[in-house]
Amino acid sequence: xxxxxxxxxxxxxxxxxxxxxxxxxxxxxxxxxxxxxxxxxxxxxxxxxxxxxxxxxxxxxxxxxxxxxxxxxxxxxxxxxxxxxxxxxxxxxxxxxxxxxxxxxxxxxxxxxxxxxxxxxxxxxxxxxxxxxxxxxxxxxxxxxxxxxxxxxxxxxxxxxxxxxxxxxxxxxxxxxxxxxxxxxxxxxxxxxxxxxx
Length: 198
Fold this sequence. Notes:
By secondary structure, the protein is α/β, with parallel strands linked by helices. Helix content is 51%, strand content 17%. It has eight helices and six strands, in the order βααββααβααββαα. The longest helix is centred in the last third of the chain and has 23 residues, at 175-197. The radius of gyration is 19 Å and the shape is elongated.
């Protein structure tokens, strides 16, 4: 996932002047942070990467329905025993579910030429939480997300990696696969606790 790749920083003027070349770099998996006065406003990631994160958010919603809140754990290793994992308190659940998820915003596209012409306005809109997708060569190419959303996804990537290592890819799993995974993990760890006690 490109959210774990090394970021390249560019000022808004350079990005605007070289937008087509930047789009190609981002599509190859190089996230680029847009700076204004040295401060990160937005991050450009491949559209496919944004779509993976939308699917991860759907998978997290399914886990929430099963009373599993991976975002609330201090360390992903706490997820090893889902049977013993305590649901967070109501205030934490409320905070997690009300946290903005810009990656889930409606798809709004802008052509590369149009985006270049109004780049400063485009970046300001994204910085305010409105994800934009640049189209190039007739396809959805690059998603521009707020820098805060990029930070949130980077933090969440540890949880996604833990699940992938445990055998469940949150970016591709169906609801039933998630339910089966949680049920099996709970049975395995619950059974291990009973054997240890007996």
